[in-house]
Amino acid sequence: MHVTHHATLGGGCFWCLEAVFQQLKGVLNVESGYAGGDTESPTYKQVCAGTTGHAEVVNVTYDPLVITYRELLEVFFTIHDPTTLNRQGADVGTQYRSVVLYHNDDQRQVAEEVIEHFNQLGIHDQPIVTEVKALEVFYPAEEYHRNYYLNNPGQGYCRAVIAPKVAKFRKMHLEKLAR
After folding, report:
1. Residue 13 designated active-site
2. How far apart are CA 87 and CA 129, in angstroms?
3. Looking at residue 160, what DSSP letter applies?
4. From CA 57, how far away is CA 76, in angstroms rounded?
5. What is the pLDDT of residues 103-130, one digit of tens each?
6. How confident is the model at residue 162 (pLDDT cuts 50, 70, 90)?
7. Helix (H, G, I), strand (E, B) or coil at 58
């Protein structure tokens, strides 16, 4: 039986992360949701208010024989700014923090290694401030968030924010694209 793995990552708006990870070879499913906080079963409105402690995250189901956890993190650290604390562009608040929510000790170790490696290479102008912590629980987002970019390409935020991120990602990671 073939085993799939999960990666749970937050780097600003989950719509942006979902739009990118859906295009990677080896990624079987991407689900937007909330994690890292202490409010049970939060709503989008509650998370956006910044009072739940949760971040907007994606839970990525992937085939480790096609793409590794390390490769997912290498993509993750190039598609958002992991050097800004509690913000991504105009999105400000702890709900938009850069966070790796690891599922096991191996994932924790790989995340720490990738962060150290990126910092040593000077990939970003500032040090990475991504939070690395254990995933306690993942709460799926409301249905209307699923496939948001695919379903709403003409929406203002999608055109102004997500489309340029997707284009940059596609250019940088051409060899990893599913299509």
Report:
1. yes
2. 11
3. I
4. 12
5. 999 999 999 999 999 999 988 899 999 9
6. confident
7. strand
How far is residue 87's CA from residue 9's CA, in Å, rounded to a whole number? 15
pTM of the model: 0.94
Q: 80: closest CA among 69, 102, 96, 93?
A: 96
Q: What is the β-pairing status of strands 131-134 and 98-102?
A: parallel
Domains and CATH numbers, the chain: 5-176 (3.30.1060.10)
- Three-state SS at 7: strand
Q: Under DSSP, is residue 141 helix (H, G, I), strand (E, B) or coil?
A: coil
Contact status, residue 123 vs residue 81, Cβ threshold 8 Å:
no
Closest CA to 90 of 99, 77, 81, 78: 81
